[in-house]
Amino acid sequence: MVELKFIHLLLSNGDPEIDKKSPRMFCQAFASVPTPIGPAEIAFVKSKVTERLKEFPLTVRSNVMNVVPAIAVLPGREPALKNYTGAAIEELINGMTLNPSNPLTNALGPTFMSVAPPLLTCEDELIWLDLGSPSYHKPVYNSCSDAEPTPDKCLQTLLDQSFRQALSIADQQTLVNELEKDTQQTHLSCVTPEKLPNLIEYNPTIAIEILMRMLKTRHIDAYLDVIVEMELSLHSMEVVNRLTTSVDLPVHFVHLYIVNSIGTCSTIRDKYMQNRLVRLVCVFLQSLIRNKIIDVKQLYIEIETFCIEFSRIREAAALYRLLKQLELDQGTVAGSSGTATGSAQSQKEP
To answer: Which residues form the signal peptide (predicted)?
Structure first.
């Protein structure tokens, strides 16, 4: 009964200080309330064991009990085990019969062998293949180099590569040419919104080409939402800037991207990264304002507050001067138009 309760305590993690107690303390605690052991208690503990085993890997659960079954010897025949000789059989028997009374080691698991990785031949020395960053060591098969490559296979392969690595200028031009030939846009279905952030970071030029083709589809809102939610970077601002100067993007998207960019600059703790992003955002906003992409009146308070917060940065000060210059020009135009109207009215009066 003491053993049963002790096993139940281990399975249920009922005592966090179990490692501080001696066996005598457990015997005294459990033996004070004697309870007969019945089939229900045994079945309960077995169910608990089954639940805990599900938490272990399949290799651990695949172990076999180290119990050697008795060999039936037929009359006039030698034991069958004698037909199996060799070092492997002896090692197996020794492993199965080692500590047969210990419940913690009363199992025989498969032996997993791993071969040492080969060395890479380099110019100066032999180095090991570093798998600390597996994303940099993904093998990519270039089907475009086949003896008879097909345009569809080449386009699909370059698209797959563009999600994982930066393409060369030649590959980018090839991919753009293939996209122009794909009038039905059948291959754009593999560019899902989840893959768009990687495409923007690795190949912003390709991302611009693909987004330009998706602007007329009904799925463009999902891609624009991903751009707003992704981490602020130079490439993401480059993509948005190119799109705003080429096509008419939804006004709410541009405004939301600007507000999120300004908010991101305020939350960064690293001063170096903060100053870098502030400069990028200021240059980005100046480009939008000078090209008349956005109406400054609708975002004047947000941009002015941003400039004042980071006034120590030269680009922010320049953006603030641009805002004040626009405010002055608009006030002058309004004033001159009002004066001209008044003069015209006075001339009409007798």
So the answer is: none
